[in-house]
Amino acid sequence: MGKIIRPTYPLEFSIGLLLLIFVLSFFLSYQIFDVPQHDLPEDASIYFGMFLVSSAVIIMLLVLWEEFLFPVKVKPTVDGGVMFRNHRKKLIKQILIYCAIPVIFGFIYFEYKINHVRFIIWAAICVITPVAGKLISGINNYNDFLKLTNDTIEFKNNEKVGIFELKNLHRIVLVKDDRNVLHKIQLVKTDGKEVIIDLDEMELEAFIDSIGKFITHHYKDLLK
Questions:
Q1: Which of 41, 89, 192, 209 is at 20 to 30 A from 203, Cα to Cα?
Q2: What domain range is 112 assigned to?
Q3: Which of 100, 117, 140 is the last residue of a domain?
């Protein structure tokens, strides 16, 4: 079983925040429908449409705020190391949850009289944002991983793949960005050749602190 390394906010706070956003989006979503606000009480079916739009907004947030449903975990390996990767089951579940958004807006489009401009704006935000923010990068890095053990460093970054024994490494350099955040690992082999592990390309941002701590603790003799 994986160990949670970055828990989300307290459950009560998270649910309260989602409820607040749901209520706000519910009252604002009437803009989508081609019905004057003062006529809303006479057309109760609009309320169901507003409920659906608010639900789409919450689904969008759940895909983006993945830690709410999928806490970040580190998976120990049988050889005493750790595996850092974006779990495939999580991505599949995210995609299935996301599919409800276009279904909702498709239903609204065919079942209600709508203001097309406002409808397109709301639909575009809810449909495109999760894809651009999480799903595309998750699919692109579907097979990527970083495995650290007491004897080896193994990684896969799209077409780049490698496994390196610590005894064949001369030094390890933790490369940080302008914010002093680890984003690359430089491996210098005993023969002078260098290998760069691009953590910033592998969608492993959630694990950066744990990666840095493991390397600092287990590979301190190789760190420069």
A1: 192
A2: 3-76+86-140
A3: 140
